[in-house]
């Protein structure tokens, strides 16, 4: 049986790096939406 990859939630450091890499409010908005919905 092939390995089934399971997603793990991002830790606070990873979230901060992702948000800090955004240049505009809309980029941050999209990231926050994805994090909130788990998409």
Automatic annotation (TrEMBL):
Protein name per its UniProtKB record: Uncharacterized protein
Organism expressing this protein natively: marine sediment metagenome
């Amino acid at each position: 049986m092939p390995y089934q990859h399971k997603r793990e939630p991002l830790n606070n450091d990873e979230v901060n790096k992702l948000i800090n890499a955004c240049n505009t409010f809309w980029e941050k908005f999209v990231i926050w939406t994805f994090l909130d919905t788990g998409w």
